[in-house]
Amino acid sequence: MDGTNVTQTLVTGASNPAGMAADTSAIYWADNGSHTIGRADHDGQDVDQDFITGASGPRGVAVRKHRVYWTNGGTGTVGRARLDGRDVDQDFITGAASPFGIAAGAAGVYWSNAGTGTIGRADLNGKDVEQAFITGAAGPRGVAVDKHHVYWTNSSTNTIGRADLDGRNVDQNFIVGASGPANVAVDAQHVYWANAVSGTIGRADLDGQDVDQAFITGAAGPRGVAVVPGKGHGRKDPHGR
Q: 17-240: which CATH number, 3.90.180.10, 1.10.287.1080, 2.120.10.30, 3.10.129.10?
């Protein structure tokens, strides 16, 4: 993935998209304006803006195997459903403080608590909830996870934070120089983030080196970024946001 062949309008018609995720079959976005989770194929076809309804100010979405997860900023909860949109549970995890981003991996579910400057965590079944799993974040928004680390955006300090999956070795300044970082994604080689202020997608190596704050340019207030697993193609928020 070299950042070329950019399409800023892959999917249109979203109301106020605020976060994004992808799996091997589709892309998903949280629509804060319509209180829904949208879905489309990788090529932008078969769009369903109301794939999941009844959310409350959703601002982040994640996919893990057979489940989709999202944050409900209005109710301080994490929702969950099956990948076919059934078995919706808007209160899968409760007690969050203005949750924004969310990520799901083999080690659990992670979300940002913007209200308390923390990263929360729970098991994939919603048990063993820790709302202050990682502390000291500054306006945390997006969250991403890989096999070794959890990453988050510090919107107040324009940095990307990182820690081990067990919450140790916290580095709030893992990557610096971002511009209103609103979300973050990771693949096997790189970390990516959405610079909402500068309208760019940033990228760096997994060790935080070779930082490019303008890896992709021309976005309009991007607030989400995702990488399609195993395909090497990045996807920004639908409608270029």
A: 2.120.10.30
